[in-house]
Amino acid sequence: MYQKPGYEELQKRIEKLEEETAKYRSLADFKALVEKSPDLIARFDKSLHHLYVNPSVLNATGLSFNDYIGKSNRELGMPENVLELWESALKSVFENGQEKEIEFNYKTPEGDRTFHSHFIPECYKAGVDETFLGITRDITELKQAEETIRKSEEKYRSFVENFQGIAFKGYENFSADFYTGKVKEITGYSENDFVSGRINYNQLIHPEDKERVQVEIKNFSSSSKKATQREYRIIDKNGNTHWIQDNIQKLYNEDKKMNGVLGTQIDITDRKQMEKTLQESKELYSTIFDNNPAAIAMSKNSDNKLIEINDAWLDMTGYTRDEVIGHTSLDLNLWVDPGQRDRFAQKLSRRERVREEVQIRRKSGDITPFKILFEFLTLIFLLQNIIHSFCNIFLISSQIS
Asked: What is the pTM (predicted TM-score) of this model?
């Protein structure tokens, strides 16, 4: 005879029905999630056989759903080197009940690819790890990006380590987010002195240059220029003066407003000293060559073409500068006795000095006797005294009365 279930029995049935409903709802949710995932997702049992694979697995391998179900990766022919890595990870998940992640390379029809697998134990109410999920993602592009970044970082590190200047990110008030490179060598202070604000770079700028630099910074900030360069002096911690060249580029925020600068600073003190020395040499050259009352010409040793003459030489011969430069003395028909010129050339080829009396033909055709000096020099000259040039000096020191 049928008896109505008691309250307790009815409660148990309801709880069981709720568990089954929750289980099927969970399975439905799981399926809806993994079916659309681009990741390769599979469920395994303790014997490492497939219980489920999502469509991404099938698309990646070209196998069917039935090809996978009930089979292990070993039975499916996974390469031995990858299989060992997988099986070791899977066994660890079952034994320890802890998630496990691995990376491996795998040859695909598109070439070698890099994958990341994440193994997750699934715990049921009974507390037994009966199955686990394997979620695999193609991270080839990510690894390539990481490699690109790594190489870029190496190049940057190499640049910073070998850069003989300072690299910085700063602002109009001379504060800095970073200040790295040859900071100690150039300024006498540490990088942290500037980044922390203990030392403001403006304090180092030479008093005679400070106002100019501040005006240049203000003008650059308000201008449409994206980059600039400036030169000025600083006084380091030990009181030494350095010439500095700034190379500056503006930084912008999302609103396209200036938000600081990136720049480099190079110690150009040696260059400035060389420029000063060169200027002094030019002034000396002008004194001993351009302003010399003796007629002086300079020709290349290789082809004897005239490369420089002073005004006294032009006055004495009657030619203009354009008529002379790039021509030889033979082109100009200066020599009354060309054989005399050939003998001089032979002596010069032996680095011998030539001091003779010769007859020179002016542009007008007039022939005048002169005392001349030929010298092979290595840069500049002062009458008969060698100073420096890799050329021949043709010096007409005086006209013979």
From this structure: 0.47
